[in-house]
Amino acid sequence: MELKAVRYEVTENEAGHRIAVIRIARPEALNALNKQVLSELKILLQELGSKRDVRAAVLTGEGDKSFVAGADIKEMENLTMPQARELALQGQTLFSKLEELPFPVICAMNGFALGGGFELALACDFIIASSKAKWGLPEVTLGLIPGYGGTQRLTRQVGRALARRIAMSGEMFTAQQGLDFGLFTQICEPADLLPTAMKVATTIASRAPNAVAWVKEAINHGGDKSLAEGLKIEADLFARTFETKDHNEGIAAFIEKRPANFQGN
Ligand code: DAK
């Protein structure tokens, strides 16, 4: 199936490392998540999940105005309660697939990131934002609550008080507030956003892919557990690195005073 509302390309950098750039592409509706976008995203995630050679991805919105301005409000009219529940579960499953890709996904938030759009950003590994980004969870202004994981991921990210402040007010926040709240790792001028995200992705892509994937797993799976359980997950994954060839390469490169050349095995 040809993808139209979600575009992606895989670029190969000088070192031969492959980085995917994914764009939500419905600029006429500020990239709002309609059924088409969600189903194309599902297909794309299946494809990307099976690509063993992609080392990182950058997710952004088409155009210079919006990352994703939310779920498509025009498709929400006349939903019944069972349909709404079903849609929430489908969307949550999709966002969890994104979160569990075996390589990091960097959100390059290039403008509005509202409701479902902000929830999509929260499912990424981290967010680099344009200074023009405007973000928030305006669901309560529509008589709704976030349905794609917003109440849960946001709370885990910033704690209960800030999550309540953001989701109960439905207000739009600035990029600087996102940085102050610990939601964004960095803010850039709009023109620098994609190059900056690509630069960070390139650095990550040069590291041992299994080690990066296991850092992701340890943080994602250990972060919500007790410290004792999280430490066990970390120790198990740490031990697994000693079965990889890349750990031999990393240690040899250090001793031989040369850059490591990781093969992902
Ligand atoms: N849905 C559909 N169309 C949208 C849209 C959206 N979320 N956001 C913008 N558009 C469309 C506008 O309707 C307009 O289309 P035309 O009228 O030209 O056909 C076009 O994009 C340009 O938008 P504006 O003309 O409004 O542009 P402005 O610069 O004046 O304003 C804005 C930008 C972002 C402030 C404004 O567009 C806006 O307030 N948009 C809505 C933001 C919002 O409230 N988003 C939804 C959040 S609630 C669920 C699961 C999850 C959710 C719901 C249900 N279930 C499982 C059932 C999540 C809900 C949400 O995401």
Could you characterize what this model shows?
There is one protein chain. This protein is α/β, with parallel strands linked by helices and 265 residues long. It folds into two domains: 6-205, 2-enoyl-CoA Hydratase, Chain A, domain 1; 209-256, Lyase 2-enoyl-coa Hydratase, Chain  A, domain 2 (Orthogonal Bundle). The protein is 46% helix and 18% strand. It contains ten helices and ten strands. The strands form two sheets. Strands 1-2-3-5-7-10 form a six-stranded mixed beta sheet, sandwiched between helices. It has a four-stranded mixed beta sheet with strand order 4-6-8-9. Strand 1 and strand 2 (18-24) form a beta hairpin. Helix 1 (35-49) packs parallel to helix 2 (81-99) and helix 4 crosses helix 5 (160-169). The longest helix has 19 residues, at 81-99. It is globular and about 65 Å long. It starts with 5 loop residues before the first strand and ends in a 10-residue tail after the last helix. The model has no long low-confidence stretch (mean pLDDT 96). It binds 4-(N,N-dimethylamino)cinnamoyl-COA. 4-(N,N-dimethylamino)cinnamoyl-COA is lined by residues 29-30, 32, 69-74, 76, 79, 84, 87-88, 91, 112, 114-116, 138-139, 142, 144, 147-148.
Please give a quick description of this structure.
The chain is of the alpha/beta class and 265 residues long. 46% of the residues lie in helices and 18% in strands. The protein folds into two domains: 6-205, Alpha-Beta Complex (2-enoyl-CoA Hydratase, Chain A, domain 1); 209-256, Lyase 2-enoyl-coa Hydratase, Chain  A, domain 2.
